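Blinded run. Sample ID left blank on purpose so nobody reads anything into the name before looking at the predicted structure. Input follows.
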Amino acid sequence: MNAPLLRVRGLRVTGPQGTIVTDVDLSLEHGGTLGVVGESGSGKSLAVKALSGLLPRGLHATGEIELDGEPLDPDGSAPQWRRIRGSRIVTLPQDPFTSLSPLHRCGTQIGWAVADRHRRAQRVAELLAEVGLPAEVARRHPFELSGGMRQRVAIAAALAGDPQLLIADEPTTALDVSTQAEVLDLIARLQRVRRMGVVLITHDLAVARSRADQIMVMYAGRVLERGPGSEVLERPAHPYTARLAACDPPLDVRLASLPAIPGSVPSPHTVGVECSFAARCALTVDACRTTVPRAVEVRPGHLAACLRIGQADPRPPVAEAPEHGGAREGAAPALTVRGLAKRFRGAPHPALDGVDLTVRQGEAVAVVGESGSGKTTLARCIVGLERPDEGTVEIPGLPAGPQRIQIVFQDPYSALNPGLTIGACLREALAVAGRPASDVAGLLALVGLPADHARRRPRALSGGERQRVAIARALAPRPKVLICDESVSALDVSVQAGVLNLLSRLRRELGLSLVFITHDLAVARQVGDRVHVMYRGRVVESGPAHTVLSAPTHPYTRRLLACRPAAR
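Blinded prediction complete.
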């Protein structure tokens, strides 16, 4: 019982172009949680897929993996994986809507992992009860459930085989703050009851800080830091961890500019005999470019792979921003919404119930609330993608339309045509706006992308670069108002910081007004001059961002703030 549940030594993943993940060592106790953090492209998901034998075709793993003392073949092809995967080791994916079959009822899908068909219905009901769902959910399809309920169904399906290890890959990324807390509390309770180990991959540092016993920081396929969850993000020893933690937006103060990490994560196979973070690190010296740093213990159980541990990072101090943001006192309205109402057939309450909203010229208004509160329906009605049952949307002195209002969606990959180059996508938007095709390079420069990106397709870009392209396309008609619907929720903290800084600059340079929809209250604090809190189709509280988020008066707003993971 004293042996660790999971022990990994020298795990390496290689592909056709070379090494992708290098020499990962880790240990996880029974009932413990290991948080894995790092930017997109750091190798988090591939390293963890190797732990469950689920590497994509063409990739191979070597090293040592032991599950509760039993050696496992890291390459995932041995027959033993057929009895390990789905029973002793299970994976909880990021999006339950795509991981669950839309054609089968929830009970059927949960029952697939129950071997005894005579007890299957009873066992499904027991599993649903264990994740806090009524038995009647077994008869429903995933599309009939909310995001939080779908994730609970996915957890129930994962638990059906009584696993020892749960691998949760961004399990709460798409969930609002209260639903996120419910799902994480549920996983923690199941851990205690079952003594189940959890490997939690997340780009939300607040979640890692509040939920993980141990945190492993990865970058370009290497582990740069590993140690107790209470220390790694609070007292980082590696410059990369320190920079990553600094990108996490605070809730208690608004910053003039969010700290970001210049550049991007290199492809692991391009990194030679050097520190993988050397090209982006302010502390780099010649030795960093000729040596792969070995992990050394900086405190008991806390290791970091850096030649300059303990050196101060020469970053300038971060300045606070004025609370009024980019809006001038007494500025004329750029957008006025009056009495907006919308009801969908079969819904228990109106999606919108008499919503009023005014956005001044140069102002950013953040709209927050749980899933189902009406935030996205409000955005779609403002931009004309939904027709409200009642109410009006006006840009004073001008008709509302695509030349005046544009929207940036949450997922830029689905919003951009994968068959078109970036240049073709932007030329199409420019043509609709009556602007010349030669403006493509200017649009790319406006969002901080080089002109040669016009020849690439969306799949060749990172998530942050794709979102910048989506913003550039929205700016093609030179709109006065930009609607951002969860536009940074799927990005890791460093990329998120860069996109938020970009939106702040565009507000200043173009005089844009923003309606910024988000479930992240800290992001709302950084973006919004004012905040509107929505609940069941109504605005229940509104006012200056620093007042609403620091001293809320409505019980619902206070509950949202209480659900947020512990602040740094």
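Unblinding after everyone has recorded impressions. The CA atoms of residues 297 and 303 lie 4 Å apart.
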